[in-house]
Amino acid sequence: MTGDTVLDVRDLHTHFFLRRGVVKVVDGVSFSLRRGEVLGLVGESGCGKSVTALSLLRLLPQPAARTVQGKVLLDGEDLLTKSDREMRQIRGSKIAMILQDPQTSLNPVFTIGDQLRESIAKLHPGQDDTVMRRVIEALRKVKLAAPEQRIDQYPHQMSGGMKQRVVGAIAISREPRVLIADEPTTALDVTIQLQYLKLLQELQQNSDMAILFITHDFGIVAKMCDRVSVMYAGRIVESGPVRQVFDNPRHPYTQALIASVPKMRRQAGRLPTIEGQPPAFSDLPRGCRFAPRCPLADDRCRTTYPRSYAVGSEHTADCWKVGAAVL
Amino acid sequence: MRRYILRRFLQGLVLLVLVATIVFFLGRLTGNPADLMLPEDALEEDRVALIETLGLDGPLHKQFGIFLANALRGDLGDSIRHREPAVDVFFSRLPNTLKIVPGTMALALILAIPLGILSALYRGRMIDRVSGAIGVLGIATPNFWLGILLIYVFSVQLGWLPSARMGGPQHYILPTITLGTFLVAGFMRLIRSSMLEVLDSEFVKLARIKGLSETIVVWKHCLRNALIPVLSLWGVLMGGLVTGAIVTETVFAWPGIGRLTYEAVIFRDYPLLQAVIIMDAVLIVIINLVVDILYAYVDPRIRLAE
Ligand SMILES: Nc1ncnc2c1ncn2[C@@H]1O[C@H](COP(=O)(O)OP(=O)(O)O)[C@@H](O)[C@H]1O
Ligand code: SF4
Ligand SMILES: [Mg+2]
């Protein structure tokens, strides 16, 4: 890793301890983020992206889920060994997050000014004037029109796109080192989506904040990210620089994901989707987890999980067939 | 907001008219009220005379009209037993009820809110199981039985507390517990379940992502939202409070409006019963209006709705 690494996640394992058994939702995930970089985490719904994100913040559903192994190094310090108190100081200030659905992520009974103020007040305790100025500033940064009037409004008085801007303002208000954006545009109207992505890009370019951008849409990855990690059933199956992965995807799952991206946004009709369903976490295949859906699967695939092969500079893929081609 | 309150107010009025109508026609279904008022050996002439003075000989709708007009003037007839206006009897007893009900409600909230929150926060743990068991018992135990049990233990066996009637502070303890148990249990379970829902919400997740302390997350972000469904179920608990007051006051010979209701039934004091029911309805409508305003205060989506 270069000295620029802000966040280094190593061999993360997060399990759900459910009545019907232990479910390994995040099963050995590693990735790293450099200063000012946007890393995409892409995969079908249910593959464990959000659970990965919440593991980093240590905000997993309690008491069901627990991170049982791994390291989350933020500026070299392992978040998994921090006390609850230390963790609270890190959340919001060093690592922030935008949730998927703006309709539910703001508290309906408090004004948006109040909800933003809560976060900023931690930077300037007891300085109400400064805090107020910073609240307005943060709203201006996310291009919310007439912020002075907006601060007294409640979430239900705003559109989804505006609310997501407020959530964005909260996230960047304390200039975090790392921003996790968990499908930030999935719940927005298509026209608003592009504006929001552009806004995130601008915010990122004006700072040295690193972004972990979570999405199920490879099209957005191509637009937004520098590097990408492809997740399938709790594991990263391919990662590398976006251009390389996009132009030359090596893992059959990545290939299928990319094939399902429409060439043009306006394109009508159904998109090609990947055949079959991802496996249930309670009943994972013994070997490669993609084998039941993979056109290239053979006996070895079905019995042994593939090792990771380097297929380019910083480009890896976990697939036996890739290995055969490389070696 | 103003329109919301006005609408609630009008709904309350409609409800009162409905209650009055039902009370009136139910009363007529049970026969001519004059028969209740007369001694059993009364002469037929006296009966006819009374029917005429009371206006009970006209057509039913006319009688109803008179009844409503009188009711609007605050005249709900005279109590047969007390020989004075039923409304006056009601108001002479109301203060005694008001001496136990608000205290009971305050106690219920003081106990139920923290217990409900704690059970939600420590779901499945000891405190949740204990308060859950108490809650189920509290809801399932009939008031009269609890009252009698308390009297038996604390008055008869231990001799610590008085068993009946009003008096010094120690007189308030058993009635308050009897009346309050149901409320504490009901509120506690409601708060627990709505807290659980709120704790699971995305905005609580975001509050934690901001790095807020658990105290602020729970008492600021959760509680206010958790109270919204509780307030909207308030009406159900009010019904329980009224029947609870009747039973509790009867068991403890507490001279309030609950006991008055019971007496009106036992002594077949028909005009008094009518008046008590209607006045109870008035009280409930007023309390519910207050709760509706509180509700709007807590939830801006209602306060700011057009
Ligand atoms: N609260 C929960 N209880 C039990 N299982 C859960 C819970 N949250 C997530 N999971 C499991 O974790 C898997 C991954 O969820 P998630 O990380 O939310 O997926 P996504 O990639 O769509 O963000 C789900 O398929 C589910 O099996
Ligand atoms: S390891 Fe085998 S089953 Fe898995 S993706 Fe590669 S070819 Fe397909
Ligand atoms: Mg998700």
Question: What brief labels describe this structure?
Answer:
heterodimer, A: alpha/beta, globular, B: 306 residues, mainly alpha, MetI-like fold, flat, binds adenosine-5'-diphosphate, binds iron/sulfur cluster, binds magnesium ion
Task: Note down, in words, how this protein is organized.
By secondary structure, chain A is an alpha/beta fold. In chain A, α4 crosses α5 and α4 packs parallel to α7. Chain A is built from 13 helices and twelve strands. In chain A, β11 (308-312) and β12 (315-318) form a beta hairpin. The mean pLDDT of chain A is 92. In chain A, the strands form two sheets. Chain A has an eight-stranded mixed sheet, sandwiched between helices. Chain B is mostly helical and 306 residues long. Chain B contains 14 helices and no strands. The longest helix of chain B has 36 residues, at 86-121. Chain A binds chain B through residues 57, 59, 61, 88-93, 96-97, 99, 101, 104-110, 118-119, 122, 154, 156-157, 167, 170, and chain B through 200-203, 205-213, 216, 220-221, 224-225, 228, 298-301, 304. The site of adenosine-5'-diphosphate has 14 residues of chain A, from β1 and α1. Residues 251-252, 288, 290-291, 294, 296-297, 301, 306, 319-321 of chain A line the site of iron/sulfur cluster.
